[in-house]
Amino acid sequence: MALTGGSRREAGLFVAAAALALVLGASTHLARADEAEAPSRIVNPNERPEWTALYRERLATWLKVQGPVPTYSPMEDVPGAGDRPLPLAEATNRSIEATALAKASAYAKASQARAFIVWHKGKIQRADYFMGADRTTPIVSKSLSKPLAAIAVGRAIRLNNIRSLDQSAADYIPEWRGTPKAGITIRYLLQMRSGLLEQSFTPDFEHPTTRAYLDPDHGWHIIHNYPLTDAPGSRYGYSNAAADLIAVIIERATGQRYAEFVGREILQPIGATGGQIWIDRPGGLAHSGCCMTMPAETWLRLAVLLAEGGKAGGQQLLDPSFVAQMAQGTAQNRHYGLGVWIAGPYVERRGFGGPGHPGPKVLHSRPYPDKALFLFDGNSNQVIYISPATQTVILRVGDTPPEGFDWDNSLLPTLLLPAIQDEKTRSKLLPQS
After folding, report:
1. Whole-angstrom distance, CA of residue 279 vs CA of residue 293
2. Residue 196: closest CA among 208, 214, 206
3. 286, 289, 312, 420: least buried by Cβ within 10 Å?
4. Are 365 and 343 in contact (CB under 8 A)?
5. pLDDT tier, 349 (very low <50, low <70, confident <90, very high otherwise)
6. Helix (H/G/I), strand (E/B), else coil: 381
7. Residue 217 — φ and ψ, nearest 5°?
8. Residue 77's Cα: distance from chain center in Å?
9. How many CB atoms lie within 10 A of CB 431?
10. How, if at all, do strands 341-342 and 315-316 pair?
11. What residues form DSSP beta bridges with 120?
């Protein structure tokens, strides 16, 4: 997974998989694609000396940590509901057993969480903050930004700014018209089936994944120089570049800055506090695939929006069918939908996926109590579980847990969902072994 987002374990898997590919010879698939693209690489006509200097500085910092950049700069404000967010109803009589909530909270605290919130059927069951955080503390989202990007697409479709998920991305990226990349749909970008080069770590100054992450004009490099390694729709390949193209599409489809659209069309209607988003340079393009900072309650409200079928405050912000499609996997990866991870049937498969490879990386395939459970997932174990069957949302966000902790915090839904006190609701869950 991209070093800027996704689960901590998956980030490690990508690095390990790259090394394994060199041993097994599987890396030749991507090597051939890179070599094919190299002669046609386009030089950015907008490049400025100060951009090159900034890019070198960012790369040097990245190479020191070999992981997520320690700070995100510059940042742009994302408007929200201001100082008066809509209050979240709190349960006076909890519908989830207090003992289970206490155990889950203790687990979250030990995992170095900054926030732990449980919502069930319209009410907060428990909300705890740790390590000096409170309900206003901004949380670096990592890849929690990816489901938000999908929600932004759904909102733009609802507003008729975008026709459909199956519309060619080239309708908004005309630079791709008449090329094989015209086969990339908006759906493929969100499902990580674009066919674009999979994310990887490399110290190469000119490598497309490095440019796509750190360059002060990263969107230009993704559009013009990011390689297409597979036929669009044919293979799952996680990439921040694909997710960052959503900001390009939203801005060109709506005529608004990505931050403005998200704030005014999503956060304000759900009564959520805003925050900030990482942009490549002042006035430049947002990184829609990573690292927006907002309070934990805002991330919870986004999950609640999906749990309630895209409706908030009496307004249908997303089509219910779009919400349903978000939680549907694909033949290439049954555990990844539109920016969200899906529980689904438990399987044991590991590999690269696509032609000539044994199968996609399978994550979040635990036998969760709700077989329809799906989740937001970000690096450092940021997780927001959504259980449609029980109308429950469980959030854990904060710092990277100490070694030895369950890499995706699956104990939380396993502990809390069976502790729902309503027998009728519990009957919708899978039998526990």
Report:
1. 12
2. 208
3. 312
4. yes
5. very low
6. coil
7. -130, 55
8. 19
9. 6
10. unpaired
11. 123, 392
Given a contact cutoff of 8 angstroms between Cβ atoms, the answer to whether 103 and 265 are in contact is no
Contact by Cβ (8 Å): 351, 361? yes
Q: How far apart are the first and last CA of the chain?
A: 31
For residues 382-397, average pLDDT:
95
The Cα-based distances of 134 to 114, 117, 127, 399, 410 in angstroms read: 8, 12, 10, 14, 24
Let me know if 417 is exposed, middle or buried by CB neighbors in 10 A (0-12, 13-18, 19+).
buried
Task: Dump pLDDT digits (tens) for 285-341.
Answer: 999 999 899 999 999 999 999 999 999 989 999 999 999 999 999 999 988 999 999
What is the pTM for the complete model shown? 0.88
How far is the C-alpha of 364 from the C-alpha of 345, rounded, in Å? Answer: 10
Q: Which of helix, strand or coil describes residue 18?
A: helix
Q: Position of tokens 């967010």?
A: 85
| Token pair 């309630």 in the structure block, residue | 308
**What is d(CA 397, CA 412) in angstroms, rounded to the nearest whole number?**
12
DSSP-derived letter for residue 41 is P
**Domain definitions of the chain by residue range:** 8-38+64-426
Helix-then-strand count for the chain, H and E: 14, 12
User: Please, what is the average pLDDT of the chain?
Assistant: 85
What CATH number matches the domain at 8-38+64-426, 3.40.50.1100, 3.30.450.20, 3.40.710.10, 3.10.20.30?
3.40.710.10
Query: Residue 376 and residue 302: Cα distance in Å, rounded?
Result: 10
Which token pair is 94? 């909890």
Q: What is the mean pLDDT of residues 123-147?
A: 95
> How far does Cα 219 stand from its chain's mean position?
18
Residue 152, token pair as written in the block: 């932004």
